[in-house]
Amino acid sequence: MRSQKLAIPDVIELQPTRHADERGNFAETFRDDWFCSNIGDRRFIQENQSHTLRRGTIRGLHFQAPPAAQGKLVQCLSGAIFDVAVDIRENSATYGDCVTRILTAERGNQLWVPEGFLHGFCTLTDDTVVAYKVTAYYDRSADRGVRWNDADLGIAWPDCVEPSLLSDKDRHLPCFRKMQPYFTIGSAA
Ligand SMILES: Cc1cn([C@H]2C[C@H](O)[C@@H](COP(=O)(O)OP(=O)(O)O[C@H]3O[C@@H](C)C(=O)[C@@H](O)[C@H]3O)O2)c(=O)[nH]c1=O
């Protein structure tokens, strides 16, 4: 497994090592010991999978409020996504900044999005399957978000975005400025 810190260093891209042979390849896509030593002391307790039918669909931008805050380890199992993490830690030097990464099933790369970040993605292919492990259980009452195209965030979404391909919930999310502060660096996740 290789890791690469991105523009916001707490957001990390992971690249599992693939062992190729005449049959195809094999990769360890997650190891608890490697993750704890190299990324952070976390336990993943839920795994999610979404299948998105159409290219250009957006899911996000989401987070769960503390104490149900989730770190997410995201990967694409089929197709490709434009993945986004936005820093919402109030005392962070990169508060409001975003990191974007293309994750593809072909490459098998992953994105670690820690607690204190909004997360969302746009599908770059039809029939996209995304899987992600999370560090806290889903809690509907803690489910929060920010509108995907908030001008203050200025995320450079890909041209294929179809604003109509959005859940009702995501269409009605509040803007970034109205978001209550939930996270500070150094506070318990
Ligand atoms: C996230 C989640 C949803 N659900 C249910 C609630 C609802 O009925 C249905 C669909 O939920 P949503 O519309 O919230 O699904 P979706 O828009 O795909 O939400 C996801 O978006 C990405 C970007 C994330 O980062 C995830 O953490 C999650 O928020 O699934 C669960 O049962 N468990 C879960 O963990």
From TrEMBL:
Family recorded in the similarity comment: Belongs to the dTDP-4-dehydrorhamnose 3,5-epimerase family.
Protein keywords: Isomerase
GO molecular function, one term: dTDP-4-dehydrorhamnose 3,5-epimerase activity
Known partners and oligomeric status: Homodimer.
Active-site feature positions: H62 (proton acceptor), Y132 (proton donor)
Annotated catalysed reactions: dTDP-4-dehydro-6-deoxy-alpha-D-glucose = dTDP-4-dehydro-beta-L-rhamnose
Site feature location: Participates in a stacking interaction with the thymidine ring of dTDP-4-oxo-6-deoxyglucose: Y138
Keyword Isomerase: yes
GO biological process, one term: polysaccharide biosynthetic process
Annotated InterPro entries: RmlC-like, RmlC-like_jellyroll, RmlC_Cupin_sf
Pathway in which the depicted protein is active: Carbohydrate biosynthesis; dTDP-L-rhamnose biosynthesis
Enzyme class: isomerase
Record keyword GTP-binding present: no
UniProt-recorded name of the protein: dTDP-4-dehydrorhamnose 3,5-epimerase
Source organism: Devosia lucknowensis
Biological role: Catalyzes the epimerization of the C3' and C5'positions of dTDP-6-deoxy-D-xylo-4-hexulose, forming dTDP-6-deoxy-L-lyxo-4-hexulose.
Enzyme Commission code: 5.1.3.13
Gene Ontology cellular-component annotations: cytosol
